[in-house]
From TrEMBL:
Residues 169-273 form the Acyl-CoA dehydrogenase/oxidase C-terminal domain. PANTHER family: ACYL-COA DEHYDROGENASE, ACYL-COA DEHYDROGENASE FADE28. Belongs to the acyl-CoA dehydrogenase family. It holds the Pfam family Acyl-CoA_dh_1. This is Acyl-CoA dehydrogenase. It comes from Sphingomonas lacunae. SUPFAM superfamilies: Acyl-CoA dehydrogenase C-terminal domain-like, Acyl-CoA dehydrogenase NM domain-like. The keyword Transcription does not apply. GO terms for molecular function: acyl-CoA dehydrogenase activity; flavin adenine dinucleotide binding. Its cofactor is FAD.
Length: 304
């Protein structure tokens, strides 16, 4: 198994990063262009691993995971996760939202203008019809539209055996992106905020916080790419590695999000600053394809 990103993957990442910087600046995260989804489709980012016969790129999960981490770093629409899974596993080519089960209702995430939404029902990945006439608000992550539906809408199971792992892998990639964003925001702020006539990044206490943030990202990125390669190779332990990638990425996103606000100090607590955005995205991603303890028990580690 080759774990070195290829030149083509590096070029794809660079092109994606450049495009995201122009099309999805963090400063405009809560007021994205109305045609952003059409731009994402035109870039091919909604079907990286979808079969070429269905209009996708037909690339491997490894490339898709790396690109989705970059998209997550720019707080790209959550519906990219569900749409990528649906396009890979079915012949549905349009936007698909996400569903989260809740007490007495189903929460639809980023499903506005989507005919279906992807979710987990009784342990199986399924698509659900999105009812018309819903009232849309926002989730804890204010970049994500949310609506509540009760009772649960009709749905149909996805037969693709790897759909659940694919969903968990891409959610992990988005979480890694949120961790990367928090790390970058903290490091950038530490370079310009001055105290005692010098940047606060000069002080060891801030250096250690930023270094820990970088380490969390590096560890989560390594596990994410290994998990994606294992899923591509169809190894027997792929499910374990995908679950481990999600657990590490979720933890990195939450811890880095909190550390970013700490580095920003008082301004980090305000709505006018953007330090709260990656932390709120991290909290939301924790509910998408969450990892249970049993997911992290390989046959060799299960108690007798």
């Amino acid at each position: 198994m080759d774990l070195t990103p290829s030149a083509e993957q590096e070029a794809f990442l660079t092109a994606t990063s450049d495009w995201c910087r122009d099309a999805m600046p963090i400063e405009a995260a809560r007021a994205r262009p109305a045609n952003l989804w059409q731009q994402l489709e035109a870039m091919g980012l909604t079907g990286i691993s979808a079969p070429e016969a269905q209009g996708g790129m037909g690339l491997e999960f490894g490339t898709e995971a790396l690109v989705f981490a970059e998209l997550g770093r720019h707080l790209a629409p959550i519906a990219l996760i569900s749409t990528a899974v649906v396009r890979h596993s079915t012949d549905h080519a349009a936007k698909a939202g996400l569903t989260l089960a809740g007490a007495g209702a189903v929460r639809l995430l980023d499903a506005r203008d989507a005919g279906i939404a992807l979710g987990v029902r009784d342990g199986r990945v399924a698509t659900f019809d999105v009812p018309a006439g819903l009232t849309w608000g926002v989730a804890i992550d204010q970049t994500v539209p949310l609506a509540r539906v009760a009772p649960s809408p009709d749905g149909s199971d996805i037969s693709a055996p790897r759909a659940a792992l694919h969903l968990q892998l891409l959610a992990a990639a988005f979480a890694l992106g949120a961790a990367d964003l928090a790390r970058d925001m903290a490091a950038d702020y530490a370079k310009v905020r001055e105290q005692f006539d010098r940047p606060i990044g000069w002080f060891q206490a801030i250096k250690h916080i930023c270094a820990d943030m970088a380490v969390r990202c590096a560890v989560a990125r390594s596990q994410l790419y290994y998990a994606a390669c294992a899923l591509d190779a169809g190894t027997g332990d792929a499910a374990f590695h995908v679950a481990a990638a999600k657990r590490l990425a979720d933890r990195a996103a939450l811890d880095n999000g909190r550390a970013n606000i700490q580095v920003h100090g008082g301004i980090g607590m305000t709505d006018e600053a953007y330090a709260h955005l990656p932390l709120k995205r991290a909290h939301l991603l924790g509910f998408i394809a969450p990892v249970s303890s049993s997911d992290l028990l390989t046959p060799e580690l299960e108690p007798a």
